Amino acid sequence: MKTTHIGLLGLGTVGKGVVEALSHQNTVVIDKVLVRDVTHHHSNLPLTTDIHEILDNPDIDIVVEVMGGIDPAYEYLATALQKGKSVVTANKEVVARFGPKLMAMAREHRQGFLFEASVGGGMPILDALTWHLNATPIHAVEGVVNGTTNFILDQMEQGMDYQAALQRAQALGFAEQDPSADVDGWDSARKLSILAGLAFHSWIDAENGYVKGITEVRAAHLHRLKEMGFGVRLVARAERHPSSIGFVVAPTVYPLGHRYLKLAGSQNAIGIFSDAGTTWIEGPGAGGLATATSIVSDIQRIRFSVPDRDPIQFESLPVENINDAYLIFAEDPERPLPVIAEALKSGPGYLILPYELPHEEGFVQYRYRAK
Amino acid sequence: MKTTHIGLLGLGTVGKGVVEALSHQNTVVIDKVLVRDVTHHHSNLPLTTDIHEILDNPDIDIVVEVMGGIDPAYEYLATALQKGKSVVTANKEVVARFGPKLMAMAREHRQGFLFEASVGGGMPILDALTWHLNATPIHAVEGVVNGTTNFILDQMEQGMDYQAALQRAQALGFAEQDPSADVDGWDSARKLSILAGLAFHSWIDAENGYVKGITEVRAAHLHRLKEMGFGVRLVARAERHPSSIGFVVAPTVYPLGHRYLKLAGSQNAIGIFSDAGTTWIEGPGAGGLATATSIVSDIQRIRFSVPDRDPIQFESLPVENINDAYLIFAEDPERPLPVIAEALKSGPGYLILPYELPHEEGFVQYRYRAK
């Protein structure tokens, strides 16, 4: 078996996981690792701060990118493909924004471009969605794809206010110092773009969807919902409508016992709904070694398969203003909320707390989708 | 894109699902369908009763087998590979018994041999296990992989005795007229052989494992367990031990609320436990269209990938007599069963009802694994 040579961009938590996971593979070698500052790393690895030592090295077959961010990652990956290297990336920002463009480049240059780690870090979701679940038309894809918000919502449910819960998450390393991508819903929205793109063959710009984070969720509401037998999770959902795509990321209410409320730690859950039935995949959504398994899997798939797979023909479907599909009502929190309970009990109720509306004194406002 | 020509062996529920699913694919054509009796089918399809019209037809690229049974299916598939055709099969008997042999033949003749539909009919489990989940060492694979026994156990829990529950399952089409493979545990055991073989790279002969079906489960026990807050499912589990494989299929007790007890209809659930975390896949375990999606997915993977993937080197590990790892005790069913409750509450309790022992008057016998 021919040895495959890797150029690794980034050596954070995931990068170190990739190094560890590849240490078990004796026909895959890391030739060079791009870091920002060589003196920050105590490592026997062949470090460099010069991207050209990777992009211009004809020995390197696959560029593995775990730096994150659009700039300069996108340029590096586009250049790698143009120079005839395959690319494996964990970068959801780049894939959500430039996925079809990079796929087209990869086909043009007959290279592999895989990004399993970009959604549900350690879960086998994207390849399954591309090949298996897509064999019959998909109606909807939905999931809890952000572990940080799970942790914060759990803490708040136990009475902590939002700021205190966020600080606790940061202190324990579950949230970034700049948590905005997680708590504002954009991390989930980018992942949903990728899921919806592969499910519906129409790549969604999340900016056109309804994206609402958890920053306006109130601990008192969560506490009260819990007493009533409900819990809240930040849920991302895309639906195939006749000539559009419904796209929503929002805090959503579920009855206790629902799988979303049982997810522990960084576990994520993603459901795919099609004529053939419903498939759920639950697994580690983050973590160095877990995310690295997705990357190693992509590397092996590229090593053992022809890159010019059947080109997915992307359609350009409009994003539906899914807001219109929801009914808003307000209710006195001091009184029972039979409407919520009924909506949830009478089937696959889908209920959203719309915190963008002003909170009137003594009232919580809710919206739910008209059936 | 070159048209791919299919020879289909079998036109039962799954075969018809394959025909339907392939009708959406305009570069895949079914050239010939092998049936037992042409007059039994009202169909525009090119039917034949002569296997040579498929095996000797040089135009046919991929043989898709959905007949079931070892004989003559195994011979047909081996011959197809030797004649330079790729093979896709849903046949768990053939794969459990001859998997590594057929994989070796496929490599020798540089053809694809895929069998996603053989375990968890419509679930994306085997490819994920082969490529993704295997990127870090797997400790255990476990699941509810037989929907028929779920249905029977559910009926019995509501008070029906075993025979009546089985007859109801047969009347509704959930159980075969000869239900032995399902209720005796061998359907689950064959699927576990395949899962364990791909997870541990050691192919297990299920005959060497501990395989116990549900035929001796008593409705009274189920009813009593339910009152105590527990339910029973037929669970298949294989574990990687230092120099052996633990292999068990047995009725197992879980606290209510466990995912296994929530599986509806033909839904299956399979968990993979590794250093990278735990991944669960839940989806349709049977059904014509669901199983057909696995087959179409395999066809597409063969069309777009090189068949000579890295040969899995199978080790030959002994199967542990997992019976030894279980402690048996008997208890008066009229009194509470605190030991069961404690065992289940104190962690990943794993509890088996061993119905092979005589049921002493007034006693139920249990075994659970020593921690």
UniProtKB/TrEMBL annotation, chains A, B:
Coiled-coil regions, chain positions: none
Catalytic reaction list: L-homoserine + NADP(+) = L-aspartate 4-semialdehyde + NADPH + H(+)
Annotated metabolic or biological route of this protein: Amino-acid biosynthesis; L-methionine biosynthesis via de novo pathway; L-homoserine from L-aspartate: step 3/3; Amino-acid biosynthesis; L-threonine biosynthesis; L-threonine from L-aspartate: step 3/5
Homoserine dehydrogenase catalytic domain mapped to chain residues: 124-299
Enzyme's top EC category: oxidoreductase
InterPro entries, alphabetized: Asp/hSer_DH_NAD-bd, HDH_cat, HDH_CS, HDH_short, NAD(P)-bd_dom_sf
Active site annotation, chain numbering: 191
Keywords: Amino-acid biosynthesis, Methionine biosynthesis, NADP, Oxidoreductase, Sodium, Threonine biosynthesis
Alphabetical list of SUPFAM superfamilies matching this protein: Glyceraldehyde-3-phosphate dehydrogenase-like, C-terminal domain, NAD(P)-binding Rossmann-fold domains
Gene3D superfamilies named among the record's database cross-references: Dihydrodipicolinate Reductase, domain 2, NAD(P)-binding Rossmann-like Domain
Start and end residues of each Aspartate/homoserine dehydrogenase NAD-binding domain: 10-116
E.C. code: 1.1.1.3
GO biological process terms, semicolon-separated: methionine biosynthetic process; threonine biosynthetic process
Ligand binding (NADP(+)): 10-15
One function term, GO molecular function aspect: NADP binding
Residues involved in L-homoserine binding: 176
Amino-acid positions noted as binding NADPH in the UniProt annotation, renumbered to this chain: 92
UniProt xrefs under Pfam families: Homoserine_dh, NAD_binding_3
Top-level division of the source organism's lineage: Bacteria
Record-stated family: Belongs to the homoserine dehydrogenase family.
Protein name: Homoserine dehydrogenase
Lineage: Bacteria, Bacillati, Bacillota, Clostridia, Eubacteriales
